[in-house]
Model the fold of this input.
Amino acid sequence: MANKIHLIPEEIIRQIAAGEVITRPADAVKELVENSIDAHASKIAVILENGGIDRMIVEDNGEGIQPGELKLAFELHTSSKITQDNIHNVSTLGFRGEALSSIGSVSRVKIRSKVESEEFGSELIMENLRIISQNQVRMSKGTRIEISGLFHNYPARRKFLKSVATEKRHILTVMTHFCLTYPDIHFTVGERKGNTVSSVLESPTRKELLAVLFDVFGPEITSGLVPIRGNVGYWKITGYISKPILVRKDRKFQYLSINGRLIRNTELVTQIERAYGSQLLKSNYPVIILSLKGDYNLVDYNIHPQKLEVRFREDDPIFHEISTLVQETLVEKSEIQQLPHKKAPNVSNAEIDLQEGYEPLISTKEVIPGESFVQTSLEEITPQNNSVNHTRAVFVQGGFRVLGHIFNKFALIEKDSELWLMDVHASDERVKFERYQEHRESLVMSQTFLKPVSVSINSGELDLLVELQDTFQKFGFQYSIQHLTSTILIHGVPVYYDQRLDKDSLHKLINDFLTADTNIEISSKFNAIEYRVVSRLACHGAVRSGYPVSERKVAEILSNLLKCNSPWTCAHGRPTIIRISHSKLESWFKRQGQ
Ligand code: ADP
Ligand code: MG
Done:
């Protein structure tokens, strides 16, 4: 029998090892940019094709690599940075000597580099680390590395790559970190499509953190930040934290760095958040941009393959002292919050920035094939039998009489020989639902806003909104996505969206899409996702429960409801109308037979 156990070929070992250091394009970009920073570059440019999946280029004006050492840089465990003496005290970002060899073993690499002292630079083209060609090139000092076809020879990994949009977002997150941590380096990120490169991110030429923050996060976030500075534990701390009124829905806006290296440390973040106390509501997180400077041997970096997690020394008082510094900072700045605010958002809604008194304007008219959505014409008829309260009643097409709206929820209607109790919201939702359904093949009219409304979202929501953009658009919901600041700009909503566009309703709308129940009333015509979009839009577009509704509106809803295919339940399956017969009423009042 042939041996089953055999030596794994070195190439495969390398690929597996590479898969631990590099799991997606953003990891490669991070390693390459760190190398550029270590080479003291003052300008670093990144160019992406298809979110880095097809190609990424990192170019710097740093010290460069000697022509004879170009190949060496790609050998496993080669580094110019780590020595026996400095293993616990490395000041550079890279120090494992495995980034280039890892990246190289799972891609095609073209590297060119030139040092100051040489007249020419040299270029190396490799595929899975095998040299294909080597040339002399004319270039200025620095290094340019082009990585294409990441994981082309490692299908198991390539399969795990997400959409272009998601991979691009990860790269932008990494690059945003760099912009914030190294305000004095000029970073650019461009995206190449065909022959054109469009700029995606560029750090400002003004080399201060606040300028970077303004560029990266925009005015809304920046104006909610306060500077923080002090000595805590063994560390010198500088940076910005947000006033309690500026909160986010996730921790994406929290950046920690130690001696210029980005790190994650949940314990530290938790201590900072604790300092906000009750000013911070559940599931709200402050914005944190903190840089820690101190001795290199105060933390252990070698506990994470990508060097992200660090371990602080056990006797480091930082965890006790950080809360005090944060509290003092917040108290000191609290006068600012008491100044008259244009419109102080309440904490839970601070992430949604809406214009005050904003009303949507209808300005777009999309073409709708066939019949347009004609409002039922209402006839107001003075009732024949002039009893006292009847002058307010509204009749629609002769069939019923709206008696009133109670508890801001239910309408009372006299219909033939029945008393109807109508859930106004549920009924309107049914009407809207069927209209969306009916017109799902065509464009739905959208009402666009003069000024787009910006809503902050978290990364899960962002992915979903990217994915659903076409579906939403079909239903008249138009938005653009700003990856960097995790916001969507809403340009238009469907004409059926009856609600005032306020903070609450928009926020709920987005949140609900994430949690929506997909297994209700899925007709064969709809696929689940469209159903979800439609039922949510219908629900959010409908008049709200708990608000006053005019009797005229009730009549309009009822008249439309009666034209629906399934008038008796809302899209979620709840009843729209409860009918009580005349005889039932009689029996309750013991009037039978009288
Ligand atoms: P490490 O960064 O851990 O040393 P890498 O595999 O990332 O290991 O890089 C190997 C070596 O290649 C580095 O030590 C450095 O000498 C050289 N190098 C890589 N990228 C650059 C660059 N952009 N500019 C100058 N030297 C570089
Ligand atoms: Mg490195």
In short: The longest helix spans residues 164-181. The radius of gyration is 31 Å.
